[in-house]
Structure formats: structure tokens, C-alpha cells
Fold:
Amino acid sequence: MDAGELFDKWLEGTVHRSTQVNPDGVHLTVAEVLRIHSRGRLDFGGSELKAAATHSLSTSEHMPGERYAWWRLDEGDYIVRFNERIKEGAPPMLIVSHPRLLECGCRIAGGVFGAGEIRSVLSVPEAGVHLKENARIAVLLG
Structure:
């Protein structure tokens, strides 16, 4: 399935079609960054599953009057929630790190996703990273 069809048929909550649809796939944009502050729990059968506790990080302006603000992230792992959601009935889709995210020394935990909200783990290197709201940080492949 080409990126334009994937975008038009299977996604909602998108930001800007002409920027997000590319030959390599659909670029996903970050909506929220969450800090993990206590451990989760996972057993074999799932009956004792407890998600890790998180809290949403706030953004700050880099320059007064900017339309979008920035997250200033230190080294560590975070959970990111994307603006885009996969519609019901969509085939499984794969997300991978956007090349520009890799250039910053960061990476997204790739994975296969079905219908619903898209979240992933963002790993940030020792130097940290500044991440702007709606930045394209992952690529969705159909």
C-alpha cells in the first residue's frame, strides 16, 4: 500500500498531508511525551499486567511567541503518544524511527500496530534532545 493510500484510508488525527506523505511512508508526529516514574508489571498470562506509571511532560517556549513549544529531554526512556491514530479495520502497520530522529542520537522502539492510539518508547542519549511539538519522529509503513 502506498503512503498516500495509507494516510487517506487508515489514519485520523493527522497534521499536514503534503508534509507527512513521503515515498518512505507516512511520517508520524509527536503529540505528547510522558516520563516513566514507576515500574510496571508483566506476567506470562497477562492477568497481573500493570502498566508503568507515567506523567505528561510540559513544553516550554524556545523563543517568545513561537507557535509550537519544545520538550527538553534528558537522557532516558520516555513514552511518546502520536497525533495520528489507526482506524478500525486497518491491516497491521509497522513504525520505525525517522532518519532525522536517528541523527539526533535518539530512536523509537519500532513495532507492529493495529487500530487505535499509537504509542512507543523514545530513547534519548546522554546528551539529551530538544523535541518540538508535532515534530516528525517516526515513519509508518503499511
DSSP finds three helices and twelve strands in the chain. The mean pLDDT is 96.
